[in-house]
Description:
Elements: H1 2-11, H2 35-49, H3 53-63, H4 71-78, H5 91-94, H6 97-102, H7 106-118, H8 124-141, H9 146-157, H10 165-168, H11 178-190, H12 195-203, H13 209-224, H14 229-236, H15 241-254, H16 264-270
Amino acid sequence: xxxxxxGDIVGSTRENFxxxxxxxxxxxxxxxxxxxxxxxxxxxxxxxxxxDYGAAIxxxxxxxxxxxxxxxxxxxxxxxxxxxxxxxxxxxxxxxxPVGYAMDTVDSVLEEAxxxxxxxxxxxxxxxxAQAVALAVFLARKGRDKEEIRAAVQERTGYDLxxxxxxxxxxxxxxxxxxxxxxxxxxxxxxxxxxxxxxxxAVSLGGDADTQACIAGAIAEAHYRDIPQPLLEQVAKRLPGxxxxxxxxxxxxxxxxxxxxxxxxLAREER
Length: 271
């Protein structure tokens, strides 16, 4: 899930200062992790410890309450109850990527993704967005090529993934709904030539940059299994110790092969 976190941090400075260019600076002194990272880590923590998703999400969010949560989620986070609020926002999709690493069948991925969504985003579109991302991550982890991923996600979710980033970009606008941002984020991965290019594609759409780069980065990590070390070092120094520990614990248990040595930067930064 370090790919999702990297995307979140790279996109964090472009959510409010949007760009339609790909040659932007990946990291600035203002680059930081947002609610996308906090809630992705919450889902990973729940998977590691067999905790209830809603309880884990609420606990992690309350520990870091100023990370850019949406207004309805913030009300839920601060409330004493656990009832979902029928959201179809892309918050369900931004946090779900750990499921794609932890489950072993398509059916279990789709069911677990539904569970991660429904504790808050119980609208059908909220569930669909989470399932699409988790399925794409899972298939990438299993070595399916991009056309297989495209076809499978389209068949299971009904999303139109036939477009290209270049076709989407000119008329695309900021959209935080699952149906208006998740397909485009998946296409940012499908059109990419590398992990970094997936992040640049997502940010260059000029939309919800941190969330769409988070989604694209999660799938790209599973597919490419190669995140540049300088990029990982920039990410690591922006993460607090408890998040780094959870990321390492999750990757040790579920992570895709090929990144183990590179992720040692997370432990090294802590010492």
